[in-house]
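In the design runs reported in the main text, the only information available to the sequence generator was the tokenized backbone. The following block is the verbatim input for one such run; it is reproduced so that readers can re-run the procedure and compare outputs position by position.
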């Protein structure tokens, strides 16, 4: 008889756990769909371009991202936002061995000479993607300002000199090394960068 009590308690516990799990899954399934219906859906490339065009309709944005080919200092590859999307099955390079190149995105409307209605100042912004992390820099009147920076996985930010100044710097550091990004303004008031790995 002493063995029946622990067996009955274990069976009761298992039945209670199964009922609670089933009820939880049912409630989440019923309530979770309306709550996450639109928020959980990823945007297509076209939807992203349209959202960016609405957010910054007349700003020049230049992005530098890692690719498998091209010298780091030339920014050799240029593409328009209206260019067809790349084949998702095509191989891409990501990681420390990738070399940054520039991608220019220019909306159809001309850039204003005064601040836009959204309040963004005149000038040119650029996304610079490196193995150590990403930097958004903006040039205005020959002075560069680092607007934001985000370290890549495994890296942290060591030092930042955000500007506005003739040059701005950020250092990303990891256990295996560091990536120093220095940004200056070109003659056309566009951010250009150099890397020191």
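Verbatim output:
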């Amino acid at each position: 008889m002493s063995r029946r009590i622990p067996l009955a308690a274990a069976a009761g516990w298992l039945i209670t756990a199964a009922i609670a799990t089933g009820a939880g899954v049912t409630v989440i399934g019923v309530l979770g769909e309306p709550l996450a219906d639109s928020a959980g859906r990823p945007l297509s490339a076209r939807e992203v371009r349209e959202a960016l065009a609405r957010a910054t309709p007349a700003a020049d944005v230049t992005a530098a991202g890692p690719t498998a080919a091209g010298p780091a200092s030339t920014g050799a590859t240029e593409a328009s936002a209206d260019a067809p999307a790349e084949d998702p099955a095509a191989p891409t390079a990501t990681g420390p061995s990738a070399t940054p190149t520039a991608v220019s995105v220019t909306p159809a409307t001309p850039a204003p000479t005064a601040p836009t209605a959204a309040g963004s100042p005149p000038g040119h912004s650029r996304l610079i993607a490196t193995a150590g992390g990403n930097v958004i820099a903006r040039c205005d009147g020959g002075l560069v300002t680092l607007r934001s920076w985000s370290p890549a996985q495994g890296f942290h930010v060591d030092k930042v000199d955000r500007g506005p100044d003739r040059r701005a710097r950020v250092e990303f550091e990891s256990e295996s090394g560091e990536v120093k990004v220095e940004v200056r303004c070109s003659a056309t008031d566009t951010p250009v960068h150099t890397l020191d790995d």
